Amino acid sequence: MSGHGTPTPMLSRKSGPLKGEAQVPGDKSISHRSLILGAMSVGETRISGLLEGEDVLDTAKAMRAFGADVADLGNGEWVVYGVGVGGFAEPAQVVDCGNSGTGVRLIMGSMATTPITVTFTGDASLNKRPMARVTDPLALFGAQAYGRAGGRLPMTIVGAREPVPVRYRVPVPSAQVKSAVLLAGLNAPGQTVVIEKEATRDHTERMLAGFGAEIMTEDTPEGRVITLTGQPELSPQVIAVPRDPSSAAFPVCAALLTEGSDVLVPNIGLNPTRAGLFSTLREMGADLTYENLRHEGGEPVADLRARFSPDMQGIEVPAERAASMIDEYPVLSVVACFAKGKTHMPGVKELRVKESDRIDAMAKGLRAAGITVDEGEDWWTVHGRGFGDVPGGAVVETHLDHRIAMSFLVMGFATEKPMTVDDAGPIATSFPIFEPLMTRLGAVIEGV
Ligand code: S3P
User: Fold this and answer.
1) Contacts with 171 (C-beta within 8 Å, 6 or more apart), sequence order
2) 391, 421, 438: which is closest to 16 by C-alpha?
3) Total domains, the chain
């Protein structure tokens, strides 16, 4: 499956019971960061459990283009020989980040304070997404950006020759922007300070500390203040990537919606900046439990057990929870169709600038499947019909967005008539084994 070739339409139909273990792949956010920080340290970083999806493979390719030695040892084991902070070479070719906003934004940050010139591009989805949110703060370090109208890719970044440290208040809740500023701060002298009003995923901060950088996080009345001391020598690490809660969301939600299901999803990272969906589902009345709760590599981890939950209720999802479940709203909106009453989701403007406009893409598909959806610029409401009463039978456009494709395929496991997605190819960006994994649990997915 590829997001760049001929579209691959796919259909899912009423399934169940889903039974067994779902071994989902490694965390996408942590996988990107492992490769980038590995490339910025001096010596050999070993990574196990790396997500080998297209997005992360594009980042691995980019790190090679910057001069790091990146080798795939097989079975999710990778080794990176880093070139050190400020050691990136100028790539000979355009750097193509495919579908990945995280990849391109983090890499832009990592090269912006090194005196090299790099041109970035991506696929049709990525080339529509806003980059000014990253290039604005990078300009404060002294980097220059030349992109298309509206700050879109393809874009050339000229790294700062004499970078200065920056104090930056992130204007949108975005871990990508925060991380780009921190990665740029690595090669600036003195202290770079990032302030975020709402806490977003903190994998960059945790990993920077692990690689030996001096980094401090304080919760203050003005928000979370992160202070990084520039120009450290990063020491290579041994990293075990936990499994991705954003990928776990799909088998978990599928189990909640299909009669008789009982699915175990082992070893899922439950970092509080990522686990908002699971709290929300439990508040809706989902039979979802955390088993064997423990800590691994500085991150909380548990085995998730999800069972068929026919009596879920719609809820008001707290706006302040949005950052901790921003990628999970598409699949939550599917669950909301099978709950009784309305699920209101405020404070989610960022959904409009993901791989697709996710409010628009989901609202269109859900309406075509017989669901009432209300929406505004930064909120939406799904009117649940309850279990056994969701018509389905729609063909939906996925707009090169993996999470839209997987969400509607999960929906089809429980609708009265099958659901069809126009292109399942982009699923390979984050969850290449989605189809065989779901099929093994007992779900019915077919090519069309
Ligand atoms: C990510 C941050 C989020 C998320 C994306 C991964 C990251 O994006 O949607 O899938 O790894 O930092 P924003 O920073 O734009 O919210």
Assistant:
1) 133
2) 438
3) 2
Residues 294 and 441 in one domain: yes
Residue located nearest, by CA, to atom 13 of ligand 1: 174
Q: Mean pLDDT for each consecutive 10-residue tract of the chain (448 residues)?
A: 73 97 97 98 97 98 98 96 98 98 98 98 97 98 97 98 98 98 98 96 96 98 97 96 96 98 96 96 98 85 97 98 98 99 98 98 98 98 97 98 98 98 98 98 97
Cα–Cα distance for residue pair 171/190, rounded to 1 Å: 23
Residue 5: its pLDDT value, please?
78
Could you tell me if residue 439 is inside a domain? yes
- Pick from 201, 232, 263: which residue ends a domain? 232
72 shares a domain with 199: yes
Q: Cα of 325 to ligand 1 centre, how many Å?
A: 10
- Residue to probe by mutation, ligand 1, list 34, 201, 429, most atoms within 8 Å of CB: 201
**Same domain? 220 vs 279:** no
Nearest residue by C-alpha to atom 16 in ligand 1: 174
Question: What separation in Å is there between the alpha carbon of 130 and the centre of ligand 1?
Answer: 13
Clarify whether residues 247 and 105 are in a common domain: no
Neighbours of 388 (CB within 10 A): 10
Model pTM score:
0.97
Residue 329 belongs to what domain range? 10-26+243-447
Whether 1 is in a domain gets the answer: no
CA 133 to chain centre: 17
C-alpha–C-alpha distance, residues 34 and 338, integer Å: 38
Residues 118 and 210 in one domain: yes
- The CA distance from 416 to 419, in Å, is 9
- Dist. CA 200 → ligand 1 center (Å): 9
> Contact, 210 vs 216, CB < 8 A?
no
Question: Does 202 share its domain with 250?
Answer: no
Q: Which pLDDT belongs to residue 4?
A: 58
Q: Is the peptide bond before 130 cis (omega within 30 degrees of 0)?
A: no
Among all residues, which ones are annotated catalytic? 327
In a domain, 5, yes or no: no
How far apart are the CA of 385 and the centre of ligand 1, in A? 31
Task: Supply 142's token pair.
Answer: 């002294």
Ligand 1 interacting residues, C-beta cut-off 6 A: 29, 102, 174-176, 179, 201, 326-327, 350
Q: Ligand 1: which atom is nearest the Cα of residue 327?
A: 9
Position 299 scores a pLDDT of: 79
